[in-house]
Hints:
This protein is of the alpha+beta class.
Amino acid sequence: MNSPEQKKAPRGLARHLRRRLVSGVLLLVPLAITLFILNLIFNALTAFALPLLRPWLGEWPEYALVAVALAVTFALIYLVGLIATHIIGRRIIQFGEAILLKLPIVKSVYSASKQVVNTFSASTAAAFQSVVLVEFPRTGSLAVGFVTGTILDPGERRLYRVFVPTTPNPTSGFLVLLPAEQVRFTDISVEDGVKMIVSGGMLSPERYAETPPPAAGEVERPSSP
């Protein structure tokens, strides 16, 4: 009969192999996903220019063609951005968007894509000042929200404007006005807060700490009629 030590050896070896395999998978899977996404972006950037350049520069090495294709793509993106900053260019873009929004299937795809891009644009991200926790949608439950500013109520009490986005689509949500005592400020960065919303909570800090509210600054008063 095998001794207890001899029986434990195969089990210990199996446990060792299982742990190392799991560690390897956890390390390689994020790397593989990153490389896959980078490859998609790279192919998307060169897919437009490469077919146009091959008839003219077909004798060039492949790496040179790819480099020129990337340069042409970035130049086109810059040109579009340059046009979009001028009044005439904006009107042309608005006219084109109006046409797209009249097409049945294209309308849904384009409008949803634009909402997502606008949500993560620099101007929108700058509007999010802090990540907070509020009791929403009922007392006792906490929801992640973003402070977008403050406003004074008729009694001159400062209320925080808190945007509580839906998950995993942060382009919709709820705007709630809350006094300071009902808003829990955290040390979570805005970037991490957005990751939490988009990932449904799978990408979130291991812990957070509550922080004091910021000092009272400029508040937004209702405009007079």
